[in-house]
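Tip: read the tokens left to right.
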């Protein structure tokens, strides 16, 4: 049976300074310079090297080298012989290196994130970190095995559908092997490891009686399909994958459905980087991200703008997140990059087909920003859309349109559903423009499913105002923006999904705003994951029904020049009582947002209470506004990175 041998430790990295440095994987050379702005971070081809002893393996076994993410292109050489190359920085790839192994081995890997016109992404509002930033393995496997050479896939494909009123599961398990003389047996295991169905052959059809549905965040139940390859009565290889039994649909008039029931999708988008870490996240960091997403009450995640770590897709399966998965076909169409969009889409679908969390494949993002050859771009979209349907008949396709891409643009009508990246009220004035735009599109195209794939506003946790305005980068304006959008969406249940941009602040090398260059501050949580902005708690108040809380807003806006201030409280409770220095101010009933007027004359402790929930803050009367709360110097108030 196959064995995975992790080879993350004891690499040597040679960067642009020509100096070799000892590193462990995951690693990026842009962990710092990719986050400080100026658009001058290291982009080029740099070398990783590793010495290793040949692993023990039998005469009828093979050794594969596997990388789960090298950005953006990779070339590998073992003992002086080129193994292969790979274009695409976000997917798994592997090579059979058995015949090149010596007793002692020297491996070289060149990672390349330099500018070119053929490998996506090349232009986008995020940093393109270079490096071997995910795990690497040697895999020992029998020479006769489940496929390992087809677009980095797992060699097993599971399609599970509900039947008989969601009481039964019809399961098809397809497996792919490199031998014709083997026999495949398949077992379906429930979450307790009990066998609930069995089948034979490379296309096994089975039935799960009394099946438990994968039912989103309410009950993300997972089964395991286990396939064993037997040759000459000897078991030589085994693969397994988790899956869920579910179905889903989108209706242009009533929204998204999961397992036949209306299931409004409200959630966030996520990038995979962190302060001082770049994209070289550990499992613990991925898990922390998911825990914070779940705390907010999210039920859908758009994993932008590329294929994410398999571990994070696994977490989405386990937590019941409905996922939009996409490739980095973004911002501009490159005629020389068409082949790369196709190969990245094939890898995305083949490597992720079994995840029950994924419901749609994203074809592109904001592709009309700087595209000149519209005919070639449109043709590429049609090819990708058809490819998705050919490879996966169970999921729908989507794309994210740029704000300046009009509703009549042909690209917006190729995929099965469509969403827009609209920042009305941030890049342009007027919250109500969101209502007008959504209603206009829905009236003109009543049979087209519409969503918001991005919406948001920048917020720095050190910037504050009692009279927030568009472009001031304050925490208070971001909160007002999201308060409006939540009400806007609540009035329009026909929208198939809404995704906040973004769950976390992230690095965007081309930006310079908010006093911190190289960053996009639209996150609900800071880049280092240490501060949850007020807007985080607003969404928790709307979406989290199981974790009672109260949150006093603008705590970091402690110094106040006014004689009377508004105290705003977010809560998922029905009433909130406010106290100032122990004296009750009053009780407000309602939902989500509770506002109180409080006179101040010195230093005051404010306490918000609802049942057993409480929160405290301190506000101080000052003679003049604290200048530290105001954005200084260049602000790039509402200018997009473009």
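Filled-in amino acids:
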């Amino acid at each position: 049976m196959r064995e995975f041998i992790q080879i993350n430790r004891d690499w040597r990295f040679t960067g642009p300074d020509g100096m070799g440095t000892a590193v462990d994987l995951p690693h990026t050379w842009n962990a710092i310079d990719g986050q400080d702005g100026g658009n001058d971070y290291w982009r080029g081809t740099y070398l990783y090297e590793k010495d290793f002893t040949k692993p023990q393996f039998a005469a009828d076994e093979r050794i594969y080298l596997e990388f789960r993410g090298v950005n953006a292109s990779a070339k590998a050489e073992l003992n002086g012989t080129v193994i292969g190359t790979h274009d695409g920085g976000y997917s798994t790839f592997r090579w059979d290196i058995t015949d090149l192994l010596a007793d002692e081995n020297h491996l070289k890997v060149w990672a390349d994130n330099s500018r070119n016109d053929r490998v996506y992404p090349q232009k986008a509002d995020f940093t393109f970190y270079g490096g071997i930033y995910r795990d690497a393995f040697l895999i020992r496997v029998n020479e006769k095995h489940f496929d390992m050479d087809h677009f980095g896939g797992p060699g097993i494909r599971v399609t599970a559908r509900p039947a008989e009123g969601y009481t039964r599961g019809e399961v098809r398990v397809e497996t792919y092997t490199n031998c014709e003389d083997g026999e495949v047996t398949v077992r379906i295991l429930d979450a307790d490891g009990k066998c609930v169905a069995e089948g034979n052959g490379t296309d096994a059809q089975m039935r799960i009686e009394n099946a438990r549905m994968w039912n989103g965040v309410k009950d993300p139940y997972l089964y395991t399909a286990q396939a064993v390859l037997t040759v000459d009565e000897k078991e030589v290889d085994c693969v397994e994958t988790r899956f869920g039994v579910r179905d889903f649909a989108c209706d242009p008039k009533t929204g998204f459905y999961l397992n036949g029931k209306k299931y409004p999708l409200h959630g966030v988008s996520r990038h995979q980087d962190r302060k001082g870490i770049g994209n070289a996240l550990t499992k613990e960091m991925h898990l922390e991200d998911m825990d914070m997403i779940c705390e907010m009450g999210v039920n859908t995640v758009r994993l932008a703008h590329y294929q994410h770590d398999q571990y994070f897709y696994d977490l989405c399966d386990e937590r019941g997140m409905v996922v939009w998965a996409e490739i980095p076909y973004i911002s501009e169409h490159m005629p020389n990059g068409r082949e790369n969009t196709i190969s990245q889409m094939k890898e995305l679908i083949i490597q992720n087909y079994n995840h029950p969390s994924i419901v749609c494949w994203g074809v592109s993002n904001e592709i009309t920003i700087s595209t000149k050859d519209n005919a070639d771009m449109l043709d590429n979209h049609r090819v990708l859309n058809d490819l998705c349907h050919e490879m996966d008949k169970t999921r729908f396709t989507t794309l994210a349109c740029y704000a300046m891409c009009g509703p009549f643009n042909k690209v917006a009508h190729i995929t099965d559903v469509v969403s827009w990246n609209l920042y009305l009220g941030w890049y342009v004035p007027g919250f109500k423009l969101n209502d007008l735009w959504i209603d206009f599109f829905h009236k003109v195209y009543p049979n087209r499913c519409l969503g918001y794939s991005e919406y948001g506003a920048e917020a720095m946790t050190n910037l504050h105002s009692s009279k927030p305005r568009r472009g001031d980068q304050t925490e208070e304006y971001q909160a007002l923006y999201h308060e409006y959008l939540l009400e806007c969406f609540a009035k329009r249940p026909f929208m198939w999904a809404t995704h906040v941009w973004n769950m976390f602040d992230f690095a965007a090398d081309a930006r310079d705003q908010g006093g911190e260059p190289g960053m996009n501050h639209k996150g609900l949580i800071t880049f280092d994951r240490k501060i949850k902005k007020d807007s985080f708690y607003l969404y928790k108040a709307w979406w989290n029904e199981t974790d009672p809380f109260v949150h006093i807003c603008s705590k970091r806006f402690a110094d106040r020049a006014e004689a009377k201030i508004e105290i705003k409280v977010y809560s998922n409770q029905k009433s909130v009582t406010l106290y100032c220095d122990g004296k009750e101010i009053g009780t407000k009933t309602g939902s989500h947002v509770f506002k109180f007027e409080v006179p101040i004359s010195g230093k005051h402790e404010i306490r918000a209470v609802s049942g057993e929930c409480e929160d405290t803050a301190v506000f101080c009367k000052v003679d003049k506004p604290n200048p530290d709360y105001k954005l200084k110097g260049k602000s790039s108030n509402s200018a997009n990175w473009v």
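The chain has four domains: 3-142, 156-243, 248-545, 559-628. The chain is about 15% helix and 35% strand.
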